């Protein structure tokens, strides 16, 4: 798949780090370091604008290393970039640790996964077909019934 991109950043285009990676790293494109205090959130620029084909979205997800080592994650995980959006990709980062965290220009701040999706239409009905699970939710599957 080919995706049209405008790169207004000072950095290389996102790329897959290994042959079987699902996500491409997104880089901070900022003029000066940004320090996130504990529980603070900020929109971080990437300098990228994309045009996705119809039926596809880009999902912005946390980087596992930042999450584990520093408590930094993407607040609206996964963030969705719709096929008709033409603005700059921004990443909403939040610091869930007790320590300040500084983001520098060029830091890998998130990953982006391109995903196919279906457009649904609703059919209103009065009943739904029965299933073994029924209305069980929120941890109910795999639990013996009493």
TrEMBL record:
Membrane-crossing residue ranges in chain numbering: none
Catalytically driven reaction(s): dUTP + H2O = dUMP + diphosphate + H(+)
Keyword Cytoplasm: no
Pathway where it operates: Pyrimidine metabolism; dUMP biosynthesis; dUMP from dCTP (dUTP route): step 2/2
Database matches in Pfam families: dUTPase
Recorded GO MF terms: dUTP diphosphatase activity; magnesium ion binding
Cofactor: Mg(2+)
UniProt keywords, alphabetically: Hydrolase, Magnesium, Metal-binding, Nucleotide metabolism
Its job: This enzyme is involved in nucleotide metabolism: it produces dUMP, the immediate precursor of thymidine nucleotides and it decreases the intracellular concentration of dUTP so that uracil cannot be incorporated into DNA.
NCBIfam families in alphabetical order: dut, PRK00601.1
HAMAP family per the UniProt record, alphabetical: dUTPase_bact (MF_00116)
Name of the protein in question: Deoxyuridine 5'-triphosphate nucleotidohydrolase
Organism whose genome encodes this protein: Cloacibacterium normanense
């Amino acid at each position: 798949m080919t995706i049209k991109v405008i790169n207004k950043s000072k950095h290389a285009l996102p790329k897959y780090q290994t042959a079987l990676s699902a996500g491409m790293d997104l880089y901070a494109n900022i003029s000066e370091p940004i320090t996130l205090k504990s529980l603070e959130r900020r929109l971080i620029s990437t300098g990228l604008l994309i045009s996705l084909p119809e039926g596809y979205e880009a999902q912005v997800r946390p980087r596992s290393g930042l999450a584990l080592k520093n408590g930094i994650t993407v607040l609206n995980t996964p963030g969705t970039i719709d096929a008709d959006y033409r603005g700059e990709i921004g990443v909403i980062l939040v610091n869930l640790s007790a320590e300040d965290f500084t983001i520098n220009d060029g830091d890998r701040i998130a990953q982006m996964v391109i995903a196919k999706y279906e457009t649904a239409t609703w059919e209103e009905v009065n009943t739904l077909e029965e299933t073994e699970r029924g209305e069980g939710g929120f941890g109910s599957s795999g639990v013996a019934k009493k």
